[in-house]
Design brief:
Elements: H1 14-29, E1 36-37, H2 38-45, H3 59-71, E2 75-78, E3 87-90, H4 92-95, H5 100-112, H6 117-124, H7 133-144, E4 152-154, E5 166-168, H8 188-227
Antiparallel strand pairs: 1-3, 2-3, 4-5
Helix pairs in contact: 1-2, 1-3, 1-5, 5-6, 5-7, 6-7
Amino acid sequence: MTTQTKPMEKKLESTDARVLACLAEKSMTTPDYYPLTLKALTAACNQKSNRHPVMNLGEKDVVLALDRLRDRQLAWSVTLAGSRTPHYRHSLTDVLPMPDAHLAILCELILRGPQTLGELRTHTARMIEIPDLTTVQTIVQELADREDGPLVTVLPSQPGRREVRYAHLMCGAPVEQHDTRFAVVVEPARQAVMAENDRLSALEAKTAALENELARLTARFSDFERQFQ
């Protein structure tokens, strides 16, 4: 018997997406310790490695996110034999069926933000080995072309960067932000010249405005003189 799945409304809150991706990540990287306790899940969400941006969630934040994910059948609480502490697992692939390699790529985009194909291949290696960039490209394209709605999109090129980057759509259309990790540093001398140029441009604009006003007053005064001649 085939289980029928329906497309998920993919607009998650950022906290919900982080919790969901952490559950999926740990299911592949540390299967012996999965499902996760609330404490372990909170620590995973707040990791300083393999995360961008770094978050500082409390256990209450994670519980609220788990409740929202449960309402959408994306995460569940389970009781393990010999333990009275609740554990949590994801069910993303029950709602959106996909192979492990696709799940790993999607997790990386949620956990680290937009990335190139090369970055995705490198970062997913801790979850699953993807043989080459061509395979990564194929996976990304399949995630973008899903019949139940795209999960990934390509971003516009950034100045100074030649490689195309991809972003997830689990929280809706991505809001592109300037990545300061790749910002071009402007030398102090260049900044001084730019400031001087801005100052001169402002003075020129002010002078032109004063000249226009003087010409207007001169013409008006001439008209006034002619009236009394």
